[in-house]
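Researcher: Please translate sequence to structure tokens.
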Amino acid sequence: MRILVLGGDGYLGWPTALRFSARGHEVGIVDNFLRRHYHVELGTDSLTPIRPLQERVRAWHEVSGRELQVFIGDITDYSFLEPVIRDFAPDAVIHYAEQPSAPYSMMDRAHAVFTQTNNVVGTLNLLFALRDHAPDCHLIKLGTMGEYGTPNIDIEEGFIEIHHNGRSDILPFPKQPGSFYHLSKVHDSHNIQFACRAWGLRCTDLNQGVVYGIETEETVQDERLITRFDYDECFGTALNRFCVQAVIGHPLTVYGKGGQTRGFLNIKDTLQCVELTANNPPAEGEYRVFNQFTEQFTVMQLAEVVAKAGTELGLRTEIRPIPDPRVEQEEHYYNAKHTKLIDLGLKPHYLSEELVESMLRVIQRYRDRVVMDRIVPRITWRPARAREEAIA
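Model: Translation complete:
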């Protein structure tokens, strides 16, 4: 297949491109280096040293003998995106090219507006480009489990059967997003579903849980191929942040009561899921949703696993709850279905102390790169007045 990875320089995009290339597919990468820019803006950096994209591409060619085609540009610019879709003629587009951080979207008005403009407009441009130049292409879009929120009922995979006043229908599962970032993903889902219905496009929306991990089968082949690893409040996911905090001797910062429950998966399983999805495309005009995670944990359970693994390695670990900067339930019901990818053949890598210990060892190699003053969260969901009233 000819596969185009949007956001191919990122945490998930880079190893995804390598995975498909290693399996003999013709792979193109689109990126505008926005993720690198965010770190310059915020004074943070990837824990792992990331080489320039062209150097990474050359290293992959040296290791594998395979070529990656690179397109540098912004998908919100249709004059850039349209010829890429037309000329590359992809069989599948894997779309990671969005601002991926809830805290970043909640910093202030400008960051909220940027997040929604960047994410929604970029995806809309892509839909029009596919309609006009690659109508048979399979769009694989990275969504998020955060679209659903934490309802007091079981979360289905995208759709739910509703019975009302003697009539029934299968409708999109209700959305209760928890940030302007998550709202942008909801807008994407609605726009994509409409494009499938109106234009006959085919799409799989992967509502992904929280990803953890550093290494994949391809990235471990050469130091220059390593993917990024974020630990700051904006771009570091919970388990990754806890692991870095354990290595540097910082208390594990659990938000509030720590009962927030989410779906989690290993980065290796993200690649499995995307590959299974690409190999099993939907029908023309079909919009389908897969809930992409393998296990559910509370935030406190994750912190306890990290603390125990850290102790085994001789690290001094302490769990220290801090006031929750987000507006969310700190204890709640959570039961999300996730059977469709298992049915396609997903073989999960489950979380274990041994896996966390291996992450801690990798982090120890790069501990000198940690930006210490970016560990504690500073971004809050509530405006200053509401915070003062809550304290009073």
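Researcher: Any highlights?
Model: Residues 253 and 320 are 5 Å apart (CA to CA).
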